[in-house]
Write a structure and sequence with these properties.
919 residues; alpha+beta; six-stranded antiparallel beta sheet; six-stranded mixed beta sheet; 31 strands; flat; SpoIIE family protein phosphatase; transferase
């Protein structure tokens, strides 16, 4: 045996001569050098930052000291009271600035008008900075971009003898002067860092050299392989191995030797003669130092064949290697080992095949199939009916659903699959359910409790040849979910007590998987319910687009895909599609928050790029909340595409944040993908989004989708987009709903791995006959003419009932535009699902609704508009703003006017009293 060890040692070390550049010492040296460089770099960086901060603090202290000193200097108050303070103070401030080493000393009045400045041209102009805190009596420091550049300044008050602030003094330095002081210190800091780096690298080199000598320049793989060989010899052989030192101490014993000799845990390191477990003859052999070959010695109930060989022939430590082999009852041991091996193989196979899916029924079927015929002839699995729906089971064995039946034959008289069973308390199933332990019925023909459940069926089962039963409860996390029934027929002997534990172990392998499937079923149902509740139930009514949509949740779990159709003022419609990164409840909840945010931001009537910017800020805040609540939480992240279509102009404005470009199906059936500017995904921040506008012909189909539609593990993104193009091309007349179904049928497998949101919108154009617009001269007399033309247009549209209300709204909006807006002023009426009145002007100021007092002559205009219109609001355009109001179309047979509008408010039609506008 010692010869084998010597040969192994020579073989193991022979391939490793010389020094390897990938040795352990070399790798440790490189790691230490990298660590030292990192530490030194961090130290230098910290010193630079500290120096920067100290210099900034010194600049602020010097500015405060100079400003306070000048503010309390004698003669300053007297100079301020003279008719020309600048003449007296300018020489004093310049002299003080030069002597104090600051860049400027500025004296100003309480309104911020300078009396002094290093640049005489700046005297008399307003001070650049914040003077509010100093006017309140406090010293205030800040960094501003002033006439001298970026400045650090301190502002202090000048008080009269009564303590009132009568003037202010500001002193400061330019930032570049502060930076120059820091730059002068950097060479010293870098030199110190370089010295530390050199010393640390030298020490590291010495340590690496010593480590190289100790490891013989072996690389990690070579060392690992050598020790793996030794470990395999000592612990993987089916022989006991002992290594004994020259002085008789036991140096090492492998697992097999410990088992054969029943050695205690603290045996290593003790002398062999002191081990009380060993027989005297065996101990004498181990301490004799003589060679032995297959000597038989007694060790308790065993007979051991012992081999002993000396070590140290190649110059290593002297001692002995002993091998032990059990030679008793070989046949009996072999038989038992074979049975145990079969059972272990059954449990191993069960661990492989059970729980491959998160489906309760599938997992139960896998348990039944793995046990037949290796353990039982027939297996049935009964689960509480509530478990199939993801709920906790009841405390009784009633309401059990048979979900798996499997056997060596297909015609057993057992309860069929799918049957709901209520087990009587006397049955082994009920006893096992309540006790939580397996129950053995060795002879079914003599079991009256089992027979009482269904006597006729029980007789049929016994006559069929089934004679033995083990009922094992399926228990996980302290809760019994159901039972597994193992049946044996006449081809095999009855179950015995030893097989009871095997049945429990086999069922335990499946119990956790069944419980995981149950919990997954519950969470999946909750998540799907939550996600569907967050998605739109139905699309809103609008005239601009004919929309079809599809949403398919992923089979593996819910995700964060969403879509929306949002009506906007002026008959416009917003289309939204987005995708939150990740799966599960968190992604679905985040999707709901983003969808709500898009609805809220859309009420502000923002352009697509501005809306995505607000949404990006929101996702960033969500990420910060997650990090503060959960530590190192994953970044949420999301993609989104937002489009606004105007049926009046047939123009569509779009912007995207990391989302896939939409597809356009032209009226002739050709398909193109829009080349939109690519924005970063939501949550990254720092980069702007861009809006692109395209003009769409009437009948064009706009296709919005998420990546689950075209991306798949089996195909690239380009292949998916080409498949989408082919499925859309050549069908311009197909309705959007049919197009959605056709696209999903051609692109998606039966079980998609990711959520899919698809929305196809066919554009419509508002007829020109339903639009009327006029340019308005900026004169009050033009209001009456606009009212008359609008009234005539309403008569033409058959909306005469709305004439009075529209004239009132139009008068207020046009009068406000004339008095407070800017040219050009434009009026537009749109006859759609509602009557829309839009008044635009070149000003960006926004009107505010207020409630005028009874004594006020004006201020009721927008109040009347809000009371008479269904909705009103303001949106901004590049040329200014648009104030709009919507009036509901009259019901057939209705009046079309709000109650009471023709009475006391009718006289206000001639009094064009505007509301106040924001300055």
């Amino acid at each position: 045996m010692s010869d084998r060890f010597a040969r192994l040692r020579r073989i193991s070390l022979r391939p490793f001569p010389g020094k390897s550049p990938r040795s352990v010492a070399g790798q440790v040296f490189l790691l230490q050098v990298a660590l030292v460089v990192l530490l030194v770099a961090c130290g230098v960086f910290a010193l630079v930052l500290q120096s920067q901060r100290d210099t900034d603090a010194e600049a602020k202290r010097r500015s405060i000291a100079v400003a306070q000193t000048f503010a309390h200097s004698p003669g300053v108050l007297t100079a301020l009271q003279t008719p020309r303070p600048t003449k007296v103070l300018q020489p004093l401030t310049e002299a003080g600035r030069k002597s104090a080493g600051v860049d400027f000393i500025v004296v100003m009045n309480t309104k911020g008008i300078r009396y002094t400045h290093p640049l005489p041209s700046r005297i008399g102009k307003r001070f650049v900075g914040t003077i509010g805190p100093s006017l309140a009596g406090r010293v205030y420091t800040e960094s501003v971009h002033g006439p001298l550049g970026q400045e650090v300044q301190a502002t202090v008050p000048i008080r009269n003898p009564q303590g009132k602030v009568v003037a202010l003094v500001s002193a400061g330095l330019k930032v570049k002067n502060v930076t120059n002081q820091v730059d002068r210190q950097i060479p010293i800091i870098l030199a110190a860092g370089a010295g530390a780096l050199g010393v640390a690298t030298g020490v590291t080199a010495l340590v690496g050299r010593r480590l190289r000598r100790q490891t013989h320049s072996l690389d990690p793989y070579e060392m690992s392989r050598m020790y793996e060989h030794h470990d395999a010899v000592l612990h993987s052989v089916r022989e006991g191995v002992l290594i004994i030192a020259e002085d008789g101490r036991l140096l090492l014993a492998n697992d097999e030797a410990r088992r054969l000799l029943q050695l205690p845990d603290d045996s290593e390191g003790r002398k062999v003669s002191e081990l009380p477990i060993l027989e005297p003859e065996t101990a004498a052999l181990l301490t004799s130092g003589r060679e032995a070959t297959d000597e038989v010695h007694v060790a308790g109930p065993r007979l051991l064949a012992v081999n002993q060989r000396p070590t140290g022939a190649d110059g290593g430590p002297r001692g002995w290697v002993v091998t032990l082999r059990d030679s008793t009852e070989l046949q009996q041991v072999s038989g038992r080992a074979e049975v145990a091996g079969e059972r272990l193989k059954l449990l191993y196979d069960a661990g492989l095949v059970i729980g491959t899916t998160l489906d309760v029924s599938q997992t139960a079927g896998e348990l039944a199939r793995v046990a037949v015929p290796r353990f039982a002839d027939f297996v049935t699995v009964d689960l509480a009916d509530t478990v199939l729906h993801g709920e906790e089971p009841a405390t009784t064995a009633t309401g059990m659903r048979r979900i798996a039946v499997h056997g060596v034959r297909e015609d057993p008289p057992l309860y069929e699959k799918g049957r709901l069973i209520d087990f009587l308390p006397s049955t082994p199933q009920a006893r096992g359910f309540h006790a939580g332990h397996a129950v053995l019925v060795a002879d079914l023909s003599g079991s009256m409790g089992w027979h009482a459940q269904d006597p006729q069926r029980a007789d049929a089962i016994v006559n069929y040849g089934i004679h033995s039963l083990i009922v094992a409860p399926i228990q996980a996390r302290g809760v019994v979910l159901g039972m597994a029934n193992f049946w044996r027929a006449k081809e095999h002997g009855p179950f015995d007590a030893e097989e009871l534990s095997l049945a429990e172990e086999l069922v335990a392998r499946a119990a956790v998987s069944i419980d995981n499937a149950r919990r997954y079923t519950r969470e999946h149902a909750l998540a799907v319910t939550l996600q569907r509740s967050l998605l739109p139930r139905a699309l809103p009514e609008q005239s601009a687009l004919e929309v079809g949509y599809r949403y398919l949740p992923a089979q593996s779990g819910v995700s964060g895909d969403w879509f929306d159709v949002i009506p906007l003022p002026g008959s416009r419609v917003a289309l939204v599609v987005g995708d939150v990164v990740g799966h599960g409840l968190h992604a679905a909840a985040t999707m709901g928050r983003l969808r709500t945010a898009v609805h809220n931001f859309s009420t502000l009537d923002l352009p697509p790029d501005e809306l995505l910017q607000h949404l990006d800020d929101l996702v960033g805040r969500i990420d910060q909340d997650e990090e503060s609540n959960q530590g190192a939480a994953a970044v949420v992240g999301a993609t989104c595409l937002y489009a606004i279509y105007d049926p009046v102009t047939r123009r569509c404005a779009m912007a995207r944040a990391g989302h896939l470009a939409p597809a356009l199906v032209a009226p002739d059936g050709s398909v193109t993908f829009l080349d939109l500017p690519t924005g970063p995904p939501l949550g990254l921040g720092g980069m702007p989004f861009q809006t692109a506008e395209v003009e769409l012909a009437e009948g064009t189909q706009l296709v919005l989708y998420t990546d689950g539609l075209i991306e798949d593990r089996t195909r690239d993104l380009d292949v998916g987009m080409e498949l989408l193009r082919q499925s859309l091309a050549g069908h311009p007349e197909r309705p959007p709903e049919e197009s959605c179904g056709a696209v999903l049928e051609e692109l998606l497998p039966e079980r998609p791995q990711d959520d899919v949101a698809l929305m196809i919108a066919r554009t419509r154009a508002l007829p020109a006959a339903r639009i009327a617009d006029w340019d308005v001269e900026p004169e009050a007399a033009a209001v009456a003419g606009i009212r008359a033309e609008a009234s005539a247009k309403l008569d033409e549209w058959g909306l005469s009932e709305l004439a009075f209300t529209m004239e009132l709204v139009l008068s207020e909006l046009v009068t406000n535009a004339i008095r407070y807006g800017m040219e050009p002023i434009h009026v537009r009426l749109i006859h759609d699902r509602a009557l829309i009145c839009e008044v635009s002007d070149g000003s960006s100021t926004s009107p505010h609704l207020r409630y005028a007092a009874t004594t006020d002559e004006g201020g009721r205009g927008l109040f009347l508009v809000s009371r008479t219109a269904e909705r009103w609001g303001t949106r901004y355009i590049p040329q200014g703003k648009v104030i709009w109001a919507e009036l509901a179309l009259p019901e057939p047979g209705g009046t079309g006017e709000p109650d009471g509008i023709a009475g006391p408010w009718a006289a206000l039609l001639e009094d064009d009293s505007p509301d106040t506008l924001a300055e």
